[in-house]
Amino acid sequence: MKLIRIFLIILLVVISGLGIIISYDPPGVPILAYHKVESDNDLYSVSPTEFSRQMEFLVKSGYQSVSLAQLVDSFEGKYNLPAKPIVITFDDGYLDNYRNALPILQKYGMRATVFIITGQVGQTEYLNWDDIVRMQQQGTEIGSHTVHHTELGKAGLAAQVEEIQQSKNMLEQRLKVPVHFLAYPYGSFTGNSEYLLRGAGYRGACTGLPGLNDQAGNYYHLRRINIPRPRFGLWEFRLRLLRAKIYYVFTR
Ligand SMILES: [Zn+2]
Description:
The protein is of the alpha/beta class. It has helices at 2-23, 48-60, 68-75, 96-107, 129-137, 157-175, 193-200, 233-251, and strands at residues 31-34, 36-37, 45-46, 64-65, 85-92, 113-116, 141-144, 181-183, 204-206, 225-226. The strands form 3 sheets. Strands 1, 4, 5, 6, 7 and 10 form a 6-stranded parallel β-sheet that branches. It has a two-stranded parallel ribbon with strand order 2-3. Strand 5, helix 4 and strand 6 (113-116) form a beta-alpha-beta unit. Helix 2 (48-60) runs parallel beside helix 4 (96-107) and helix 6 (157-175) runs parallel beside helix 7 (193-200).
């Protein structure tokens, strides 16, 4: 009897602890990392139906999407974020980001950031320049994902500079606006990457590191929540958000 009582007390403490974490909104901002919104078996493809459910969940939970520029502006005291901000990013620049994701984002009043591999533009499965310009005109923030999807952590200094600068130049030439953010391919960067990005005129960069983001963090090491193809529906999505929150609370 005594053991059961102890077990129940522990269970109660765990449940109420989880309840507090779920309902607690820490100041950190989540950045979601998607790749494809497509109905195939790719590990990084979220089906349009699942993506739609995820966006609906975010809106119902009170989240409002912001761009990375707005996020960093807020860190610098130049922009007031909404009460529950979230950044939605896509890596690689797949065609389905325009065909499948954008209409869903628009339906829910959300906006996204798409990181383009400039050397892949117009290839099979990838966005072409017209699509990218159209997405930008409809409120999508465009960033760089290097020229060749290069693992910057393993690249020499000269190669890093080239990947970082050339992709930015190419995007800016096509889009006629400054490009200030990059996502590291494979989440890979070196101690020099931040210095090189600053030098090239970037304001920040997204990694694959887990957690949430606040003013105290390094803007060139922005943390993201990876969203691959869900095996357990919306629950998995909610758990991924929760896990980032827990990670943030306990590592600050
Ligand atoms: Zn990538």
